[in-house]
Amino acid sequence: MLEKIPSRDSALENTSYARSTFDPSLHSGQADSRLTLLVSRFSFLVSRLSILFIISFIFLWLHILDDAIITNEPAWYGITILEFLLYCAVVYAIVPPLGVWLARRGSVWGLLIVLAYAFQAIYGAGLNHIKHLLSDFSGSRFLPTLLGMFGVQITDIRGYGFWTVMMGMAGLGVTPPHQHILASTLIAFVNVGLNLALIVLTALALYTWWQLRPDRFSSWKNQLVAERSADE
């Protein structure tokens, strides 16, 4: 499903990946060594976050299936289980995998999509579940609070189909009090750990991408040349 990221030895000269993402004019001396190191680091981070994304994606769907079948969340929204699964697939099965595909090609937009996915998954499939164990069924209060500043109050979110599920994911409305089985709780804690690691890896990949920007790397190379000239 995912294409192979260029290896450290070939990333600079033998692939369109390096040619399309990084400045080939920097391939000389110490600048070349630094570029090689950064390309290698970026490739390593993106390959690891790709693997972590797949594992996170699997556990996310275990959580979704638990919500649909065990917790019977679709009944809260006035939709069927099939509709609930379809709407979740529209949200999670198209854009996040596309983000990974783009990230593996050096796209910052892909990394940002993966980061947004990880934040949504760590809350929706992890932290929110833990809140329920503490008898807090209020959901996320960020968006409701933000809308409240503009005088918008949303309470009953039922009856809007796909948008009902979207509003539920955004923390709008109130979740009815309910209980979870032990297996679903274990999945929730795994989701927190997986997506926390995914957030860290993606943030590191974003920082490395920023270091590899042609204008920033050219600035570093010019500074190196200036320092050598001063020494001479």
Present the secondary structure layout:
Layout: H1 16-21, H2 29-70, H3 73-77, H4 81-92, H5 95-103, H6 108-133, H7 142-148, H8 162-169, H9 182-211, H10 214-231
Helix pairs in contact: 2-4, 2-6, 2-9, 5-6, 6-9
How would you characterize this protein structure?
By secondary structure, the chain is mostly helical. The protein has one domain (35-231). Helix content is 70%, strand content 0%. The protein contains 10 helices and no strands. The chain has helices at 16-21, 29-70, 73-77, 81-92, 95-103, 108-133, 142-148, 162-169, 182-211, 214-231. The chain is elongated and about 60 Å long. It starts with 15 loop residues before the first helix and ends with a helix.
How much of the sequence lies in strands comes to: under 5%
Any low-confidence stretches, pLDDT <50, length ≥5?
6-28
Quote the average pLDDT: 78
Query: Helix-strand pattern, N to C?
Result: HHHHHHHHHH
What can be said about the biggest beta sheet? Answer: none
> Given the helix and strand composition, which structural class is it?
mainly alpha
**What count of domains describes the coordinates?**
1
Principal-axis shape: elongated
Helix content: over 70%
Distance N to C terminus: 53 Å
Tally of separate helices: 10
Over the alpha carbons, how many angstroms does the gyration radius reach?
22 Å
